[in-house]
Amino acid sequence: MDELYSLTCGQIRKLYNSNKVSPAEVAESVLKRIDAVDGKIGALVNVNKDSIKSQLLSIKDKKNGAFYGIPVVIKDNICVKGEGTTCASLILKDFRPPYSATVIERLRQEGAVLIGKANMDEFAFGSSCETSCYGPTKNPWDLNRIPGGSSGGSAASVCADETIAALGSDTGGSIRQPASLCGVVGLKPTYGRVSRYGLIAFASSLDQIGPITKNIEDAAILMNVIAGYDPKDSTSAKIPVPDYTKSLVNDVKGLKIGIPKEYFVEGLDREVEAAVKEAIKKLESLGARCDEVSLPHTRYAVSAYYIIAPAEASSNLARFDGVRYGLRSRGPKAANQHLIDMYKETRAEGFGNEAKRRIILGTYVLSSGYYDAYYLKALKVRTKIKEDLDNVFKEFDCVLTPTSPTPAFKIGEKLNDPLSMYLSDIFTIPVNLAGIPAISMPCGFTAGGLPAGLQLMAKPFGEETLFKVAYTYEQNTQWHKRKPRL
Question: CA–CA separation, 30 vs 37, rounded Å?
């Protein structure tokens, strides 16, 4: 038998059903793996071994739970009661939430074992997992390269078998882009499908929690656990949740897949483009019909996003002022002068450069005299992007694109070039602006051994279609079975 840490959720559930292993043995295997490899990768910021022991005792009566005994890593911006939740920022140093996010409650109800917290870009501001106060996470395929971001720790931990599954959050591609660069599966659900209660907000109209897993089946199983209406979240959709595992059918005959020409342009890495085009051919050989479509407003997506997202972030991060929780500056100005000085000192000490950049940018575009010129115009562009996709989904079941324009780049390569970094999300951002679901999965490797990912998009609440197409592709390829050597 393979090492337990290397198995999928589906495989472990079968072992439990036949009484061949116990949750304690699986947890022990995962913890040994973390001890062996996380020193190289830096995927996790906290592993609470005492908590794991108590969790194993508490799940004994939950053997019928959908996630019984399955180790899960949680991104560090999702609240777990009593456990450090810092958004990888000094300003939330030592913060321990008095409540748990809805997704955490649902995982626990189904018997999951929470292993620890995953590293991330500070407040989810980034595409490389380099802006964390804990230091960067490294890509398991090449330790000199980034794992993607902002859910880089979640993706790297799944890739390196430090967990069986993980939760991330996706505001502009922060689940899908690191999933692509680490060669794993990442799903951004429809806006409102998964509760955001307990997710520390970046941009409230864009954020979504979603699964990062080793294969498509595990993503469907995890979505069954976390999806559904939540009265604690005013943006939660009161729409019945199907059993996503029933969509795992190896059949795409007759499905129509749109291939937007705007995604195959200058700047797309040749090896990534070749891998995605091979994936298109594979789906066609399996009976799908793939035709070119146009999403003309895609070119404005990055510009619109980097007005809307920082605007919402500047508002959401105003609460971190040193008064109620988290860091409070003890500097001379903060201690001896006006309250405003304490605010300034605290925020200057607590926020990193990228967080400051986005707060300043967001405050600027919302300021008097610039609101109409920037923010209002960006909202209109957002509507146009959604209309483009709505029109395509009138004829097509889903849309297929590359997930990231390039493979993983080297650590430090783009850290001082914000514009270049922001363009890493060019293929994922339209999904968040439109509020639709999308999934990323591995579709090949470059000559240098780095993963390439393909992205599938569907209409709102069309996750079942995504699972069907993705599962069919996965069952007829071997990319998801490759593992990095660590």
Answer: 11
Residue partners of 362: CB distance under 8 A and separation at least 6: 309, 310, 311, 312, 313, 314, 315
The per-residue pLDDT of the chain, averaged, comes to 95
Closest CA relative to residue 123, chosen from 460, 409, 362, 377? 362
Q: What are the catalytic residues?
A: 75, 150, 174
Q: Tell me the C-alpha distance between 285 and 303, whole Å.
A: 37
And the tokens for 391? 């029109």
Rounded CA separation 145/89 (Å):
22
Q: Provide the token pair at 425.
A: 């999300």
Q: Compute the distance between CA of residue 438 and CA of residue 444 in angstroms, rounded to an integer.
A: 19
What's the rounded Cα separation, in Å, for the pair 44 and 34?
Answer: 9
Report the Cα–Cα distance between both ends of the chain, in Å, rounded: 20
* Cα 279 from Cα 477, distance rounded (Å): 9
- pLDDT per residue as tens digits for the range 406-465: 999 999 998 888 777 877 889 999 999 999 999 999 999 999 999 999 999 999 999 999
Distances from the Cα of 65 to the Cαs of 12, 56, 292, in angstroms? 13, 13, 43
Segment 249-289, tens digit of pLDDT: 999 999 999 999 999 988 899 999 999 999 999 999 999 99
Q: What does the alpha-carbon distance between residue 250 and residue 287 come to, in Å, rounded to a whole number?
A: 11
Pairwise CA distance, residues 252 & 274, whole Å: 22
